[in-house]
Each structure stands twice: as C-alpha cells, then as structure tokens.
Amino acid sequence: MVQPSANGGQLRRPWTEAGMAGTNAGTRLRAAPSGESDELGRRLAASAEYRPRPAGDVVEWLAGRRRSVPVEVTRIPFDRMAGWSFDPGSGDLVHESGRFFTVGGIHARTDYGVVPDWRQPIIYQQDVAIVGILAKEIDGVLHFLMQAKIEPGNVNTVQLSPTVQSTSSNYLRTHRGARSRFVEYFTEPGRARVLVDVLQSEQGAWFWAKRNRNVVMEVTGEVEPHDDFAWMTLGQILDLLHHPNVVNMDSRTVLACLLASASSIVRPGDGAAAAFAAPPYASGEDAFLSPVQVRSWLTERKSAYTLATRAIPLDSVDGWERGADAIRRPDGRYFSVVGVEVHAGNREVSDWCQPLLEPRGIGLAALVVRRINGILHVLARADLRPGCRDTVELGPTVQCTPENYEGAPRETRPRYLDLVLSRSVKVRYDVVQSEEGGRFRHAQTRHLVVEVGGGFPARTPADFCWLTVPQAMALARQSYQVNIEARSLLLCLHAL
Amino acid sequence: MVQPSANGGQLRRPWTEAGMAGTNAGTRLRAAPSGESDELGRRLAASAEYRPRPAGDVVEWLAGRRRSVPVEVTRIPFDRMAGWSFDPGSGDLVHESGRFFTVGGIHARTDYGVVPDWRQPIIYQQDVAIVGILAKEIDGVLHFLMQAKIEPGNVNTVQLSPTVQSTSSNYLRTHRGARSRFVEYFTEPGRARVLVDVLQSEQGAWFWAKRNRNVVMEVTGEVEPHDDFAWMTLGQILDLLHHPNVVNMDSRTVLACLLASASSIVRPGDGAAAAFAAPPYASGEDAFLSPVQVRSWLTERKSAYTLATRAIPLDSVDGWERGADAIRRPDGRYFSVVGVEVHAGNREVSDWCQPLLEPRGIGLAALVVRRINGILHVLARADLRPGCRDTVELGPTVQCTPENYEGAPRETRPRYLDLVLSRSVKVRYDVVQSEEGGRFRHAQTRHLVVEVGGGFPARTPADFCWLTVPQAMALARQSYQVNIEARSLLLCLHAL
C-alpha cells in the first residue's frame, strides 16, 4: 500500500485551509466564495489541490503491480471457452451457471439517426454492479482508495479501478474466487458514510439497459492495507487523466458523479488552464440557457424519438456471422465478440475464460467548448443508443468510431466529426482512455476537448445544446441523463 | 370560459405580497423566509393562497360541461370494436393504423415480493404523451388553464384535465378529429416560458415502460378562450382535491412535478392543518435521514432486486382467458381488458371505439405519516412494478387493491395494509381519485393519508423509509424516482 503521508502532507491540513496550501503548480479546482457553503465541495476542492506525490509515482506503482502479478490473456476459439457455450435454442452465448452475463441479440427500430432498423449482438446483464470508491480523510484531506486491477480486456492489463468493482453475482454469491475485498463497506449499513450513490447507464451500444451503482463511501477508522490498493487524492487522480489508459472507465464515472454531487462549488479554476477556463465561473444569469430550459431541451429530445427494441436470439441477428473464434460482420464494422482465456498469478482468482466484446478501431468522444457571455459552455448532443433505459441521454458533441465511416457517404458522417478533427479548433485535451476491461477487449476511446471561437454559431441543430459545466454536472446528479462517455469527458474537463 | 377576475381578485396582487393577502380560511402553502429565494416557489405559494371563487363553482362548471356535451360510453364485444382486432399471429389487441397503443403480454420474473414469476396482459405505447398545463399571471397571480375533458373510462365522464393531454400520435399526425387545442404552446419553441418539464412513469402494473412529459408552460399574451377550458389558481385546484374524482390523474402528476420543482419553499404551512403539519417545517438537520442517505436508500433498493421482463404474445399469457367481450382471469382478480364505443356530441371528436383496462375493485394508495424530531415524515416504500423503466420507484406506504387479497394467506397481505385500515391511526385525508380515463375504465384509487403516533417505530423494514415531504418532492424532480400514486398523494398532502 502506498502511504500518502510518507511523502509530503506531514502537516495536518484541514479542508478549511485548502485554498492556500496547494503544493502543486496548477490550482484547477477551487472552492466557491463562502456563502455557497457546501462542505463536500470544499473538501473535494482541497483534495484536488493536494498532491503528496507526483502522478508518475502512481504510474510506476501500477507498473510494479503489473510485473508482480503476471497475467496472460489469450484469445481462444469459442469451443475452448470453459463454462461458456452457445445455447442450442437461441444461439445466445451463455455461462453454464446462468449468471454473469449473456451475449444475445437485439432488434432496434428508431426514427433517430440514419439507420431506422437494425439487429446486433448485445450484452445482457441483469444485475447492478457496485462501482464504489472508499474515501477517507488522511492528514485532513480526502483520499480515495484506488485499486490496481487486472481486467482481461485492458490493453495494459492493469489500470486504476475503484475500490470495489463487482456485480451482485460476485458480491452476493460465491463463485470462482473470494468475495470482492472491501465490498462490506458498500453492502453493510453503518460501516461508512455515503457521499454519493446514484445509478448510471453504461455503454448503450453494447449493453442492454445496464446500469451501475456509482457510489463513494467515507470511512473514518482503519482500513486494512493491501498491496493492490493505494490511497490518493483527487489532485493525483486528476493528474493521471493526462496519462493514457491509466484511470479506468469505472473510476472516471464514479468520480464524475462525486464531483457532480458537489458541483455547485467544485469548478475548473483559473490556474493552469487560465486561458481556457473562463473566470468568473458561470453563474445562472450568464449561462446561454437557464437550468430549466436545459432540462426541458433534454426532456423534449427524449420525447422526440421513438426507440422500439426487442430481444432476439443471437442466431437471428442478420448480417453477423459466427465463426470458430469470433462473431462479426463480414465488413468488419462496429465490433466483434471473441473469447479469451485468462491465466493470472493472483492468489484470489484462478484461471478463467470469458467472452469479450472487441470494438473496431479507436473510438472518439469529443466535446466542443466555447465561451458564451464569457463563460465556458460545452456543446452536448442528445444521444440515442439501443441499450439506454431512457433512450436518449446527453452525450459528447461527437461520439463514434471514425473507422466505421470510412468510405461512407458524407451525409451519414456524424455532425461536427470533421470539425473536431480539423485544424480550425484549439485542442485542449487529447488523451486515449479505456472502456471497461471486464467486458470489452482493447476498447479505447480518444477523449478530445476542443475549443471553438466566438464565430461558431450559438444556435445549433435541435439535437445539440450549449450547457455550462455546472449545468451538465447537475444533470449527471440524476440517473440516465448524461451518458458514460460524456461523464468521462466532464471529469477530464476538471483535470484542465 | 370561466373568468377568474369576474369574482374577487379585482386588486392586482403581485406575488411579493402573497403571504399577507390570503382570502380563504386555511393558509396551507407558504413562502419560505427570504434568503431562500425561489421566485417560482413564492409565486406558487401566492397562487395557492388565492381563491377567486369557491371550489364548488368549478364542480358546477364541470357538471355544466357534462350536460352540454352528452357522451355515451357503451361496453361492446371485441368483434364490434371498429378499427381494433386481435393480431392473428400473436393475439395482441391492435389498432389497424398500428398507432395509439397495443394490448400485449408480458412475462415477468423477479426476486421482489411473493410472486416470483408471472404473465399478464399489459399496454404497450411507444410514444411519449405531453401532459401539459398552461400557466399565466392574472391579476398578478399564477393561474392554470384546466380543461373539462371527456375520457371514456371516467366514472363521471368529465374531469379536470391538463390543458393538453395528448400523445404524439395525436399532436404530430392527423387522425380522427383535430390537433389538440393549445398543443402549439408545448411543441413550438418560444411561445411560452417553461416552468417544469420532466419525464415521469405511469402505472407500472398496467403500462410497459410508459412515460409522460409532465410540463407547465407560462404565457404572457392572450390565450383564446374556449368553453371547455378555465383558468384557476393553485388554491382552487388544491381545494378540489377534497372532492372525489374531479382533478384527474394527469393533472395531479403535472402539478406534483410543478410543486416539486420549487419544493424548497412550497410547503404545507400551519393554517388549517396546524395540528397535522409540523412547524417549523423540516430543515435538513431535523430530518430522520440526510438527503444523500435517502437517495442512497432508493439507489440500493433499485439495485437490490432483479426484474427480467419479456414481451410475449397476448395469446401466450397463461391464466387469462379471452372471451367475446373481456380478457380476464377466471378468478376475476387484478383487471380485465374490455372494449367500449364512445358517442360524443363534441364537434371535434367523432365516435370511436377502443379497449380499456378495467381494474377489479377500488385501489388503495395509503401514506403513513408521523412526526419525527417534530417534523412531518412520510413512510415511503420501494415499489417494483413490471412496467417500470427503472424497476423500483418510491411508492406510497401501501399500494394495492385490497379485494385481490380477500381470502389470501395473511403472510401475503401487503405490509401495513391492516394498519392503515385500522382505528389505531388518525385519518388526515381520505378521498377517492381516478386513474387516467383514456386507458382505464372506472379505475378509482382511494387516497389515504393516516398519521401514526410517536410509538410507531422509526426503524422500518428494508423496503420502507421515512422521508420529509421536501425530500420526497426533491426525488420527484427527477425522472423515475417517485411513482405516479406517490406523486398523486404528495400533491394531496399539499391540500391539507
């Protein structure tokens, strides 16, 4: 376990002194003027300003964990995938226990976008996973217990995960290996104090109606140390967002929800990103739309489209072919479903096999930002995905896999795709981050924040809307309003 | 059109004077101390205090509308239901246009409650209805444009409806009759100012994943008068909640969402219900649980249960029988599906036929309330219904049809059902209200608010939770957190 107090932070620094005591260069989150009192927001701002160790130390620690637990992930044909088989009736890819998840088919019809009717494989998983982070005050500053976690789909095997990342198949019942470490803080009442606890959607193109419980629990007592876990501040984690594929998707969405729960005072400041962020920060009057107008826009967009989905047997997904070692389209587009075998040297997990969904190419999640009335606004898009419980959520300006549009007619290319990749924008953030490695293989998404100038029209097509960052964060406080890529980008915005 | 300024209200009464100028007996909503400024809340409080006419006038007006447009609703066998037929493949009851709605089947499996696996008929309706109320300041006080609307399922034909109550089949396309009157205020941007606009679930036992857009739009200009519409204040509408089957379900849910959007300052006061409401009103510190704990409880309950639903052909719903004029269970439980023919003398609507879902007996929606730390708390229940998009929502303490439990084993009776019907509680509200008459026939629900004393345990079973009214209203600001019966009861609480 990395001891955050071993280097720096010897002095007790209560959060009330936070604004003055930053040890690092950029003050990137700051507390609001007193009066807008929000204890959690002040504590998060203090944690964001405090970096007892440089980000490189965590990267090295992850590399060390990677070396100490050698893991081998091998692609195997489906008939060698122990425990998994194709259901003779439906062709669905199922586990013999009936648990974990199933790869089945879906038939979707919608009046959104350019494809009105399609069938595709999709992951069905009924239970709600806990993606939970333990928080604790150390030296008077909030720290978060992050895990160096092996996931078979990760390009680099080990990434920084929440303290607990566990489906109820894992935490309620026994199966391979032991119960998730520290899960009792999230399942047993009274062991910790809840800071945020909200259901959020996952990737709606790949999961059907999947949702996770994004939760942060604060403890005050001793937490048993373990080599795979380390306490770090929000500042350290935000720094790590400048490294590719380090902070995993589950960590990013939980932390986005945590910041959203206090967004009235956790805000990008005028430190390292002075040229980019716009002080004074958005107040309601300066925003392009009022909060109720923003909400109404999203409600109207949710109502504007119909989406009819129907579970269908995997065998009846037209246009996809099942080979010996992959389910894929002949044209190679979108994704394939493959099988892997995992040999891990970790004493808690024995070897296992599982399917993974492997997207084609590197995805793109891009957020266009500009100043309106001197205030930073993000250009969000009403995004419909077949697996979204509430059909439409607020997404990034552009969310797609550019390779899928190679050779496609110009009018089918996503709006603003060419803009965000052009030289006419100022790139403010450009880092490749991973999707969840427990279900997706080598799924990487380029996270891009680009700024446009005042010449860019404030009026937009109906599916797009300018919001301030606090307005977007306020929507993320609620379930099923902000999609997972947008939540991830909103967190990255706080690292600028 | 009833002119609210014809009687009373001659003086211009800006909302800032509202607290002083109540013309009626009970001051039941009041503005918060200044500092907690919330313009909408103050305006709603003023509207709640102002009653230019007694409630009886509106009841008489509705009776007059009922007489002036004679409507005849006749139960007919399915084979006489013009435009509707049973699909030969599935047995689903469908309209020839493919629009409106379909009665199909659902197969539900869950670990919630005492029935783990069942099939039932259910209504499928893809499009999102607008249930929208126009608001306008008249004599300085917010008034709402309510409609005397004929619905074939209403026990009394005409009830007080929102200004617009229309599915997109109606407002986007032409079909029988004209476009809904006033719908342009809700569909054309810039015609009005949005006060609230949120998607909410409908009856999850009868509708599959149905959601409505609950919206209130404020206008400033002239609104064309029409005999079926009248402007009234919130105070008048709240008074009408003491009359059975007057304010329809759609009106109740929209107004609940409107009050929720300003709940920080719209609160039961200490007027007529001084013995019941608890001044000083709930502040965060006096609540039994903090807001984040309440939210966490509901998130945890949403995660605690699995619900797997699958659309099935109506023909394959075991245990239900299709006769010539009803689809029902041999034991008569739950509900039946019937057909009706409607003859209306209204020039805008020609005769039509449609199916209706007719529940057995009168439903019960009961809320147990008690004072904790001197503050009014309501005992909410985590309620799972097969048609709920988010599986579990916060429901009343008891929500059931008592007749369905006649002769059933004691252990299957809903928790607290016997309590709320017993003499050991103080009845604070007991009025029968209707479910939506456009889909449900003679569906009435007894709305009951009962108070228990300090001897009632504050600790409750896991599916129950004590919340303050503002905490419950805060959840109702979000989609899919508070079910339709609970929203209806929360509105009724404001009438006390």
Automatic annotation (TrEMBL), chains A, B:
Disordered, as annotated region: 1-46
Lineage top rank: taxon: Bacteria
Domain dTDP-4-dehydro-6-deoxy-alpha-D-glucopyranose 2,3-dehydratase residues, every copy: 57-258, 293-493
Keyword Ribonucleoprotein: no
Gene3D superfamilies: EvaA sugar 2,3-dehydratase subunit (3.90.79.40)
Keywords in alphabetical order: Lyase
InterPro entries: EvaA-like, EvaA-like_sf
Any one GO molecular-function label of the UniProt entry: lyase activity
Broadest EC class assigned to this enzyme: lyase
Protein name per its UniProtKB record: Oxidase EvaA
Organism: Actinomadura luteofluorescens
Lineage: Bacteria, Bacillati, Actinomycetota, Actinomycetes, Streptosporangiales
